[in-house]
């Protein structure tokens, strides 16, 4: 119960400011973000969470003030908007309804609420938001070292297609040292004559940039801005700077540019070759002075550039740095830039300039060397203890001009050297010393998935060989998106605990600009992982501002005929089923629904309804009598056959079921949005597809679907395609196959979720337990026994390629929803009302999980002890929960040591309790 003691302490700390019986709004957000710097909407939505000392607390009214200055807000002057008292329990997505908002303007707001007893709260803390700049206001000028025309980079969309033709490949090669590929430094001196109030920076450096003011890095982003299809959308970042960032007199803006996905290189390893143009920069800084005047500094022809010490940078191939080429103080005042060249004005990227509203990628953790082996004299392999997505930091000393080559990899060869054969080779980092005492270096524009580091021809810590450089220190940097974690899970079963850890290390490794498949070989946004792992992703991470960016990328990548490709952004076109597979494309339909269910926010359904509808219409053009027959099917399904295309189950069964599911969800969206004509059309279409599916794939005599595989029978049950009269028989066929296979799965990337949830939702959690509580393949336990720290692409890591994939991680949904029992109510999305209905399975003695919902923390912790079942729950203010207890109808039930009479659910055969907000300990006799 330690977890819940911490919950109580944290809650007590928060509510020490609340008077007895009151309620307090906290964690105010605008468009789901705290203090956002680039709100696009003219009528942004305002939200807050609530805390209270009382149980069963709720909001009955609110009053919002929005002001043009903090001073006015402190005086309760809502000169921009005073909502007046609004009688409602709604505390999420309140649409701003004040004076028209100006672009590039900061606003201040606060809220107070009334509770169920009519008592008014104190004012919340002040929060802010800035409105985004219109593109016409930005009036961007793009600058760099060379124009696109002079760079001779391949032009046209066809260049974005993959090629493995070596003759064609060679024609694409541009030397990495050329200005078309080379990392460059740009600088702009400016003078400050007056006292600065604040400065706002708008910047997009493509492919990636690092910005400094007077030599100090601005922000903590890695690989900014986030990846997009640069022909459709170009992200820019916004930074709010205080006066202390500047100095009276001379100041310098410095920008370092790298290639990223904008401009890949053919040297060393690369998955594909693509270029949207040479490295380029857009910059605008608006300085506001204390006297009310303003000054704007922009990217223009007055800037200068020079080649940077980064002599090679490729998102796929690695990075080289020559410290002897450093120009000390290049981004500070007093530097003589007479040898630098004037920038050229470049062609702007084709995409629409949009503010990046998704969180940045940052360095989240650092690992020290765990073990080191000297395979032969001065030849070292370091185990960093964790497979991850990132790059090393090295500290070295030696002679000027000496070079250290750093190889990284997920695994080792038999002789103990690093193995890149599965993950893409050659990939390495070269550092050339300047010969100045101990030197420290961290790459900036390339990352890889690795656990092991190999360095040859060095001393390690001690200067044994005076002719070789010495590695003084080595660290491993784990990078992933800074969206933040939303939940935690643990239980009495160590296989499940370690599985949870494996999966989340893989999710984090692939939680970059987009959700990638792997952090080494491809780094591509294969879509199916997002929807098939969607509930697990949302329980574990705060995706409120990340998923809207994902949907923008999906919208950008949708073809004119409605096709949503398998990878987004579509930097490479693989063709055939690897471009067009319904299980992947339907993510554009499923994701807005998941977002609505978990966050109570219909904005993605509203904005991307045409995307959803057009995709279903596209599948209709590929169907014959409502049967769709193309795609990858249940990719990587398990068996003795090689992994790849679905072998156990018909591809047409998979494709058609997802066509049905897409039509069904578009019909639901139509109804929710009041588009009744569309509802009638897609509801009828879904019914017709269901009829065709059952006619094509269901055997009335045997009650089996397709090949009677686990996927074949599970997916129609999960999607409610099977007729109710046949459901139990199909379920028994599914269970019989699982038993025949020794309680082992035969599903794949697509089928796992449908299998797991079909069992969980139909009272077969004991079967789920047996299927996963072992150390054999297929199963998570085999990977644990293998000694891995991340989830792999195949159940047997020796057969697969990547050792850092999260596509098989669908069991996370079961951990949270079944073992801990935290389950949303579809009728009241966003967990306004929810269920806590834990499953006690196998020999488990406890399980606990918490989830930071949009209303506040939800927690469920149960244990079996001394013949009793003890459940502690936390229910956020302004929500309610139905507790379904896994005990007999006649069990004695106490809440906080007081006997209560529970209701009874005849369907589930479980006692139930209806509770309002608060923390409760429920004790039942078993």
Automatic annotation (TrEMBL):
<feature type="domain" description="Alpha-L-rhamnosidase concanavalin-like">
    <location>
        <begin position="374"/>
        <end position="462"/>
    </location>
</feature>
<dbReference type="InterPro" id="IPR035398">
    <property type="entry name" value="Bac_rhamnosid_C"/>
</dbReference>
<dbReference type="Pfam" id="PF05592">
    <property type="entry name" value="Bac_rhamnosid"/>
</dbReference>
<feature type="domain" description="Bacterial alpha-L-rhamnosidase N-terminal">
    <location>
        <begin position="194"/>
        <end position="364"/>
    </location>
</feature>
<keyword id="KW-0378">Hydrolase</keyword>
<dbReference type="Pfam" id="PF17390">
    <property type="entry name" value="Bac_rhamnosid_C"/>
</dbReference>
<dbReference type="InterPro" id="IPR008928">
    <property type="entry name" value="6-hairpin_glycosidase_sf"/>
</dbReference>
<dbReference type="InterPro" id="IPR008902">
    <property type="entry name" value="Rhamnosid_concanavalin"/>
</dbReference>
<dbReference type="InterPro" id="IPR013783">
    <property type="entry name" value="Ig-like_fold"/>
</dbReference>
<dbReference type="Pfam" id="PF25788">
    <property type="entry name" value="Ig_Rha78A_N"/>
</dbReference>
<dbReference type="GO" id="GO:0030596">
    <property type="term" value="F:alpha-L-rhamnosidase activity"/>
</dbReference>
<dbReference type="InterPro" id="IPR035396">
    <property type="entry name" value="Bac_rhamnosid6H"/>
</dbReference>
<dbReference type="GO" id="GO:0005975">
    <property type="term" value="P:carbohydrate metabolic process"/>
</dbReference>
<dbReference type="Pfam" id="PF08531">
    <property type="entry name" value="Bac_rhamnosid_N"/>
</dbReference>
<feature type="domain" description="Alpha-L-rhamnosidase six-hairpin glycosidase">
    <location>
        <begin position="485"/>
        <end position="818"/>
    </location>
</feature>
<dbReference type="InterPro" id="IPR016007">
    <property type="entry name" value="Alpha_rhamnosid"/>
</dbReference>
<protein>
    <recommendedName>
        <fullName>alpha-L-rhamnosidase</fullName>
        <ecNumber>3.2.1.40</ecNumber>
    </recommendedName>
</protein>
<dbReference type="InterPro" id="IPR013737">
    <property type="entry name" value="Bac_rhamnosid_N"/>
</dbReference>
<feature type="domain" description="Alpha-L-rhamnosidase C-terminal">
    <location>
        <begin position="821"/>
        <end position="897"/>
    </location>
</feature>
<dbReference type="InterPro" id="IPR012341">
    <property type="entry name" value="6hp_glycosidase-like_sf"/>
</dbReference>
<dbReference type="Pfam" id="PF17389">
    <property type="entry name" value="Bac_rhamnosid6H"/>
</dbReference>
């Amino acid at each position: 119960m330690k977890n819940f003691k911490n919950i109580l302490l944290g809650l007590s700390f928060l509510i020490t400011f609340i008077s007895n019986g009151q309620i307090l709004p906290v964690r105010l957000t605008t468009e789901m973000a705290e203090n956002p710097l680039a709100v696009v909407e003219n009528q942004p939505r305002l939200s807050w969470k609530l805390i209270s000392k009382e149980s069963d607390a709720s909001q009955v009214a609110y009053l919002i003030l929005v002001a043009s200055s903090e001073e006015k807000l402190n005086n309760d002057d809502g000169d921009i908007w005073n909502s007046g008292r609004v009688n409602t329990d709604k505390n999420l997505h309140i649409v701003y309804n004040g004076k028209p908002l100006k672009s590039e303007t900061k606003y201040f707001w606060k809220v107070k609420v009334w509770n169920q007893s009519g008592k008014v709260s104190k004012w919340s803390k002040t929060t802010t938001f800035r409105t985004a700049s219109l593109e016409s206001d930005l009036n961007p000028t793009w600058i760099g070292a060379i124009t696109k025309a002079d760079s001779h980079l391949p032009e046209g969309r066809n260049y974005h297609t993959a090629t493995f033709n070596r003759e064609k490949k060679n024609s694409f090669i541009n030397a990495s040292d050329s200005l078309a590929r080379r990392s460059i430094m740009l600088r702009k001196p400016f003078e400050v004559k007056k006292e600065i109030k604040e400065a706002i920076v708008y910047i997009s450096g493509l492919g990636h940039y690092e910005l400094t003011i007077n030599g100090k890095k601005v922000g903590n982003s890695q690989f900014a801005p986030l990846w997009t299809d640069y022909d459709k959308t170009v992200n820019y970042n916004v930074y709010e700077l205080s006066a202390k960032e500047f100095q009276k007199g001379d100041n310098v803006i410095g920008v370092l540019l790298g290639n990223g996905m904008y401009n890949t290189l053919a040297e060393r390893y690369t998955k594909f070759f693509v270029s949207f143009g040479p490295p380029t920069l857009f910059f605008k800084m608006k300085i506001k002075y204390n006297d009310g005047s303003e000054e704007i500094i922009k990217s223009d022809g007055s800037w200068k550039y020079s080649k940077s010490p980064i002599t090679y940078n490729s998102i796929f191939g690695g990075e080289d740095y020559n410290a002897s080429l450093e120009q000390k103080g290049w981004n500070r005042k007093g530097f003589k830039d007479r040898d630098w060249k004037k920038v050229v004005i470049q062609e702007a990227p084709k995409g629409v300039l949009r503010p990046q509203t998704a969180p940045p990628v940052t360095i989240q953790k650092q690992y020290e060397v765990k073990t080191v082996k000297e395979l032969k004299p001065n030849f070292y392999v370091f185990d960093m203890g964790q497979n991850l997505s990132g790059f090393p930091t090295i500290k070295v000393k030696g002679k000027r001009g000496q070079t250290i080559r750093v190889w990284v990899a997920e695994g080792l060869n038999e002789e103990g050297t690093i193995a890149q054969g599965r993950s893409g080779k050659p990939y390495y980092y070269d550092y050339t010393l300047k010969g100045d005492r101990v030197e420290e270096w961290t790459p900036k524009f390339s990352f890889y998935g690795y656990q092991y580091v190999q360095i040859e021809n060095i001393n390690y810590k001690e200067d044994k060989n005076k002719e070789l450089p010495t590695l003084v220190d080595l660290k491993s940097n784990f990078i992933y998106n800074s969206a933040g974690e939303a939940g935690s899970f643990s239980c009495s079963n160590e296989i499940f605990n370690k599985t949870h850890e494996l999966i989340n290390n893989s999710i984090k490794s692939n939680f970059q600009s987009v959700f990638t498949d792997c952090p080494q070989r491809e780094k591509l946004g294969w879509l199916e992982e997002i929807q098939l792992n969607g509930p697990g992703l949302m329980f574990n991470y705060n995706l409120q501002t990340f998923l809207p960016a994902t949907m923008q990328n999906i919208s950008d990548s949708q073809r004119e005929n409605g096709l949503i490709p398998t990878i987004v952004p579509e930097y490479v076109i693989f063709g055939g089923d690897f471009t067009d597979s319904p299980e992947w494309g339907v993510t554009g339909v499923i994701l807005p629904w998941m977002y609505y269910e978990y966050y109570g926010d219909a904005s993605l359904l509203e904005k991307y309804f045409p995307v959803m509808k057009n995709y279903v219409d596209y599948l209709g053009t590929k169907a014959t009598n409502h049967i769709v027959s193309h795609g990858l099917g249940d990719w990587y399904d398990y068996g003795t056959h090689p992994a790849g295309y679905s072998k156990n189950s018909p591809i047409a069964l998979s494709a058609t079921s997802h066509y049905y599911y897409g039509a069904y969800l578009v019909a639901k969206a139509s109804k929710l949005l009041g588009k009744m004509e569309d509802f009638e059309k897609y509801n009828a279409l879904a019914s017709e597809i269901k009829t065709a599916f059952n006619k094509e794939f269901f055997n009335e005599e045997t009650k089996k679907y397709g090949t009677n595989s686990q996927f074949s029978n599970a997916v129609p049950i999960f999607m409610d395609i099977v007729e109710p009269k046949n459901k139990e028989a199909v379920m028994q066929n599914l269970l019989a196959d699982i038993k025949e296979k020794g309680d082992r799965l035969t599903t794949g990337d697509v089928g796992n979720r449908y299998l797991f949830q079909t069992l969980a939702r139909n009272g077969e959690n004991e079967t789920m337990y047996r299927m996963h509580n072992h150390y054999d393949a297929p199963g998570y336990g085999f990977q644990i026994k293998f000694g891995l720290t991340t989830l792999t692409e195949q159940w047997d890591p020796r057969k697969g390629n990547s050792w850092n994939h999260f596509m098989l991680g669908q069991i996370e949904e079961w951990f949270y929803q079944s073992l801990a029992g935290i389950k949303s109510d579809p009728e009241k999305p966003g967990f306004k009302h929810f269920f806590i209905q834990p499953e006690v399975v196998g020999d488990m003695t406890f399980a606990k999980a918490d989830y930071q919902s949009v209303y506040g923390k939800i927690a469920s912790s149960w244990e079996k002890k001394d013949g009793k079942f003890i459940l502690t729950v936390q229910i956020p203010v302004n929500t309610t929960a139905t507790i379904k207890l896994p005990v007999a109808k006649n069990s004695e039930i106490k809440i906080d040591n007081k006997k209560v009479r529970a209701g009874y659910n005849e369907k589930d055969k479980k006692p139930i309790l209806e509770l309002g907000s608060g923390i409760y300990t429920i004790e039942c006799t078993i």
